[in-house]
Amino acid sequence: MVFYQGHTYSLESFVSEGTYKAGKDIVAYINAADQKFKVFYRGETYVIEDFPPLSYKVGDGIVAYVDNTDRFKLFYMGDVMDLSSVSPGFYDVENRIVVFEEQGYFKTWYKDRLYELENYIPVKWEAQWNTIVYTDQNNHIKVFRDGDNKVLTYDIVEDVALYRDLIVTNRGLNIHNVYYNGKKY
């Protein structure tokens, strides 16, 4: 059962087993009875695969998954698209953004587009809402936001944290900088 915009929807009449994951406005699930991978999105149910995926993760209006043939795919706005023909080394879905590794490259999918961020995998990165923040190989803090990837600061920092689209850096001795909407506070 799904409660969505004031209505209750019965997705499957009889389910004894299976899995499901829910995002803000989406539910992905596998019914053990028919083994189909389905998505409930904005009041409609879509059968997106005839076989259960190897793994799947859900965000706000998106489902990223590795299908039974090791292809990395994405369900977005009622359509299924291929992100890669190979299974990613890792992937994560945070709100409206997908972060993944493909053959040693650090990549993201955001707003119907693929972006190659780096040709290596950063040691530390975080993603939330519309933002990815990470430390590059030169220990600079880089930020990907709204399709733009750039160096946030050349300061040497001990730690960086992301809270939605707000970035907080700690330069040591409790010296914190806050970055929001392109401004430093």
Description:
With 185 residues, the chain is mainly β. The chain folds into two domains: 1-87, Thrombin, subunit H, CATH 2.40.10.360; 88-185, no CATH class. It contains no helices and 22 strands. It has a four-stranded antiparallel sheet, with no helix packed on it. Strands 7-8-9-10 form a four-stranded antiparallel sheet, with no helix packed on it. Strand 11 and strand 12 (97-102) form a beta hairpin. It starts with a strand and ends with a strand. The mean pLDDT is 92.
Brief rundown of the structure:
The chain has 185 residues and is mainly beta.
Note the main attributes of this structure.
185 residues, mainly beta, Thrombin, subunit H, four-stranded antiparallel β-sheet, 58% strand
What's the total count of β strands? 22
What percent of residues are in strands?
over 45%
| Mean pLDDT level | 92
How large is the count of helical segments?
0
Kindly, what is the distance between the CA atoms of the first and last residues, rounded to a whole number of angstroms?
46 Å
Helical content, roughly? under 10%
| Overall outline | elongated
Secondary structure elements and pairings:
Elements: E1 2-4, E2 7-9, E3 18-22, E4 26-31, E5 37-41, E6 44-49, E7 55-58, E8 62-66, E9 72-76, E10 79-84, E11 91-94, E12 97-102, E13 105-110, E14 113-118, E15 125-128, E16 131-135, E17 141-145, E18 148-153, E19 159-163, E20 166-170, E21 176-180, E22 183-184
Antiparallel strand pairs: 1-2, 3-4, 4-5, 5-6, 7-8, 8-9, 9-10, 11-12, 12-13, 13-14, 15-16, 16-17, 17-18, 19-20, 20-21, 21-22
